[in-house]
Amino acid sequence: MKVGRPKKAAPSARQLFGTKLRRYREDAGLTQEALGLKVQISKSHLSRIENAEYMPPPELPKALDDYFQTGGIFAELYEVCVLEVYPNQFRRSLELESRALVIKQYCGQLIPGLLQTEAYARALFDEFNPYLSPEEIDEYASGRMARQARLRGKDAPDCSFIVDEAALMRRVGGPDVWREQLVRLAEETETKGRIVQILPLAAGCHGLMGGSLVLMALEEGVWTAYEESISTGTVLEEYRAVLRREQAYGRLMARAWSPARTAEHIRSLIEEHAT
């Protein structure tokens, strides 16, 4: 029987990011402290990133590409780093989201991830799994904030969000966290390229109750759907299955409040929350 040496595991994207960062820094003759001053990050964080112990913050890849003139190498590696944060069953949907030209999402119990504040996201991660370490929560929160960065870029997708009124009644993370989230949501209703609508409880029963749905249009003109429950997610690509979800989403849009009324309602909650 032949016994061979075990194959080494392929390096993760985070390890590659850290290795390239160290190489470019050393080639430039910079200490961690000196580079940190140029790209606005602490020496300790830079050290942890180089050792693949810490998820790079969303703004760092562009800062590194600009400083080292690397043509987007760090930005490309970072996109893979973000995917690695999530379990395998969620990575396909995130890869599709990163390419989508149009995103339509319905959320029944939570504020959509693309609209969450970091504090709200952290509160959710802590509640979903109280055994997560602070470092793991940092990692997940950084990954979620990285997903949102594309909404502020030149290639931002057109987005439509329908949020169930129930999600606005669930005060996540304490008074300050919840108020900050409401302010963010109100701002999003008035942002070019995004539509936010509340589905009132008075709308009653509907076809998307019990979960969340994301519809995504890609460059090839292909639509996909992604359904998610508490701990599982399913990507749907078969035409009829996606069409049924798109029709259900269209019915919800017709029953949801207008963006103007949605903004008015959220602002009233903010005022009520301040008292």
Question: TL;DR of this structure?
Answer:
The chain has helices spanning 13-27, 32-39, 43-50, 60-68, 73-85, 88-99, 118-128, 134-149, 165-168, 175-188, 239-255, 259-274, and strands spanning 102-107, 158-164, 194-199, 212-217, 223-228, 233-236. It is an alpha/beta fold and 275 residues long. The chain has 2 domains: 13-82, 434 Repressor (Amino-terminal Domain) (Orthogonal Bundle); 88-119 and 147-274, Endonuclease Chain A (Endonuclease, Chain A, 2-Layer Sandwich).
Describe the structure.
- There is one protein chain.
- The chain has 275 residues and is an alpha/beta fold.
- It folds into two domains: 13-82, 434 Repressor (Amino-terminal Domain) (Orthogonal Bundle); 88-119 and 147-274, Endonuclease Chain A (Endonuclease, Chain A), CATH 3.30.870.10.
- Helices cover 52% and strands 13% of the residues.
- The chain has twelve helices and six strands.
- It has helices at 13-27, 32-39, 43-50, 60-68, 73-85, 88-99, 118-128, 134-149, 165-168, 175-188, 239-255, 259-274, and strands spanning 102-107, 158-164, 194-199, 212-217, 223-228, 233-236.
- A six-stranded mixed beta sheet has the order 3-2-1-4-5-6, sandwiched between helices.
- Strand 5 and strand 6 (233-236) form a beta hairpin.
- Helix 2 packs across helix 3 (43-50) and helix 7 (118-128) crosses helix 8 (134-149).
- It is globular and about 65 Å long.
Beta-strand portion reads 5-15%
**Global outline:** globular
Question: What's the main sheet like?
Answer: 6 strands, mixed
Number of separate domains: 2
| Helix content class | 40-55%
Q: Please identify the structural class as seen in this structure.
A: alpha/beta
Distance between the termini: 76 Å
Unreliable spans are 1-8
Named CATH topology of the largest domain? Endonuclease, Chain A
Count of DSSP helices? 12
| CATH architecture heading of the largest domain | 2-Layer Sandwich
Q: Roughly what is the average pLDDT, rounded to an integer?
A: 87
Strand order of the largest sheet: 3-2-1-4-5-6
